[in-house]
Amino acid sequence: MTVLARPRARGAAADGRSRAERDQLGRIPRDLWEALAADEEARSRYYGKVYWRGPGQCSYFLGALSSGGHGRFRAGTRRAAADRPGSLVVPAHIYSYVLSRGVPAPDPVTGYLPVIRHRCDEPSCQAAGHLAAGSPAENIRDYLARRRDPYSPLNDRRGPRGRAVAIRNAILAALAEDASAGQIEAAIERVSAAGIPGAQQLLF
Predict the structure, then answer these.
(1) Angle, alpha carbons 198-194-160 (nearest 5°)
(2) Which helix (H) or strand (E) holds 74?
(3) pTM of the predicted model, to two decimals?
(4) Is the model more confident about 19 or about 161?
(5) Is 72 exposed, middle or buried (0-12, 13-18, 19+ CB in 10 A)?
């Protein structure tokens, strides 16, 4: 099945993601996304790479991270054809969206696939309720609007990757020390606030 790709703009998007990151949903055919999601071993590995928290909270990816702070997950497939790869590295949040809601359909008017964006603005978040499908224009509009909030993750001085790495490392360090859930939450709160001046002043 042929999947239409979105028009490609040059350089990085307003939200700091590379062109390759913006196009990931459309670069993999629909039937292959479905095969990736159907692979039980891959799903089990994926769930094990996420620090799952309570309802409404961000759940952070603990594996590899892209330059934009998004999780990078190697998903295995049941080969749909002899020329299909045995595994692919995919953006973890898109994999999460496909697992929870299936592969989104192209826009009925434009024929283009949506982008999968974070309502929470945490690039490594995997919480299905924090993910939404929309147009590139909606994504940029949301980014520009929420960036005005001085406490937004979008204003982290470390950048999206630096923020995601700091949160991931704090969780992994706490888990290695067999910290309690409350101690892990405190570590997440501290490291989340560290790159945002206003939030840091409130916390400390």
Answers:
(1) 100
(2) strand 72-76
(3) 0.83
(4) 161
(5) middle
